Amino acid sequence: xxxxxxxxxxxxxxxxxxxxLDAITPKHDELDITDKEMVANFFKKxxxxxxxxxxxxxxxxxxxxxxxxxxxxxxxxxxHLMDELIQTNPYGKFVYVSTACVFDGHxxxxxxxxxxxxxxxxxLTKLLGEQEAKRxxxxxxxxxxxxxxxxxxxxxxxxxxFGTYLFAEDVARGIQDVxxxxxxxxxxxxxEQKISMFELAxxxxxxxxxxxINEYSGPDLTMDMSLDTQRWKKYKMSKN
Length: 240
Fold this sequence. Notes:
Number of domains: 1
Distance between the termini: 31 Å
Shape: globular
Oligomer: single chain
Structural class: alpha/beta
Number of strands: 12
CATH architecture: 3-Layer(aba) Sandwich
CATH superfamily: NAD(P)-binding Rossmann-like Domain
Helix content: 25-40%
Order of helices and strands: EHHEHHEHEEEEEHEEHEE
Radius of gyration: 17 Å
Low-confidence stretches: none
CATH topology: Rossmann fold
């Protein structure tokens, strides 16, 4: 079985590479998903059975400020991959890594049947990517909320934004578990506990300072990104 992982230099992509050791993991200059012709040529050279699509622009601010680039990457890029999988292997599997941010964040603990309602342009592009992924029968849409296990990149973290967070290695394990179980449709890979972003940041950066949304200036943010699941198990956040 030939597996293609897009975004293999990203936080989650790197963890997936460690789990799918035989996967094809092209760098950006080898596979630019915004270039339809490059994607077509790539798929013609290799008979791909499974696409695990993690490549995306995930910065909310960057997506707002560079909407054309965000659209080309998150929506058109997904479409290009889908077009070629359908063309070369219509029975292939497409795994699309989505986000908890497809929901408005007003109530939290959203499950697979909850109705999405994006708050910002980033979330909109990811929801539209989900729709592209559904074009192949054997699709798997993974909604999750993860962080890299490294020092928090900012001096403060929100104490009033929440999620059922996991580290990237936990989500990679979850994706492998779901694939091994031959699941399809929408699956939420979630942590056991709902915690604040500040509590998450303290795990890797004990000296982090708290902040609230009142101190923030920028695009609308999803305040409660917590996810529940009706279709799958919950994961304990790894400690090391």
